[in-house]
């Protein structure tokens, strides 16, 4: 099975980044549509890195450094949140 490692990383970090952003910015919408829009924007701004899964657990096996580190993923999510909050589609 082939998975986009970046997508797994964004999925994994999205809630954490979203919750922290919403705590600092009251009124931030975290509805399912906004979350998906943020994820799509973040993924479009990040590289794609396909990895072959073996017994699961590929997420921890692949070094985050390969994608520019956690900071790059967090920045892409934050950028997506700001775009979606300015122009929500829900
Ligand atoms: Zn919303």
From TrEMBL:
Pfam families assigned: ComFB
InterPro entries documented for this protein: ComFB (IPR019657)
Source domain of life: Bacteria
Name used for this protein in its record: Competence protein ComFB
Record organism: Desulforamulus reducens (strain ATCC BAA-1160 / DSM 100696 / MI-1) (Desulfotomaculum reducens)
């Amino acid at each position: 099975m082939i998975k986009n490692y970046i997508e797994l990383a964004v999925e994994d970090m999205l809630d954490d980044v979203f919750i922290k952003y919403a705590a600092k910015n009251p009124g931030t919408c975290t509805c399912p549509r906004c979350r998906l829009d943020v994820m799509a924007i973040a993924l479009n701004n990040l590289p794609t890195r396909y990895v072959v899964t073996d017994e699961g657990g590929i997420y921890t096996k692949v070094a985050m450094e390969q994608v520019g580190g956690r900071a790059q993923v967090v920045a892409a999510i934050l950028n997506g949140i700001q775009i979606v909050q300015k122009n929500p589609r829900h």
